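Encode chain A's predicted structure.
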Amino acid sequence: MYSKILVAIDRSANGNAVFDTALALAKATKGSLMLLHILSNEEKNSPQIPTLVTLEYHPLHGELLEDYWKQWQTYEEQGIDLLRSYTEQATNAGVSTEFTQNSGNPSRNICEVAQGWGADLIVIGRRGHSGLNELILGSVSNYVFHHAPCSVHVVFAPVALKHEVPVVNQVQVVH
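Encoded structure for chain A:
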C-alpha cells in the first residue's frame, strides 16, 4: 500500500511519536522511509540570528555573528545526529531507511521532497496550534495537507494542560 514513506522529523515532544508511527507503517506495509529534518528558525531551540538593530548598536557585532554561526553549525550537527539515530533504529527493525536534512521553509520543503522522492505517504506531526496562534505562526501540517502530492498521516499531540500528562492521538487524513 505505502512503499515510500516520507517522515517529517523535528525536535518537538511529538517527534518520537511521528517516527514511531512511520516505522510501524513501514513495517506493516514493507515500505521504506525517508527521514527529513528541516533546519528552520521556526523550530524550537534553533539559533536566532541577531537583528539589524542589535548589530548596529552592539560594539561586538562581528563576534555576535560568529557566535550565531557556531550555534547554527551545532544545530545542523544535532539534526544529523537525530536523523542518524532514527535511521539506525529503523534499519535495526528491518526497514530500509535514508535521510536528508534541508534548510528553509518547512511546509514547502516537505512537499518538494515528497514530490522529488516519489513519496506515497507523508507522516507529519501537529503541534496543536489553533485560532490566533495558527493564524500568526502558520501550520506546517495544514499547509502540507493542502499541498502534498500524496496522502498525509498527521500524528497529533495536543498541548497538555498544566496538570495533565500528554496523550498522543493519531489522525489519518488521506486525500
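The radius of gyration is 18 Å.
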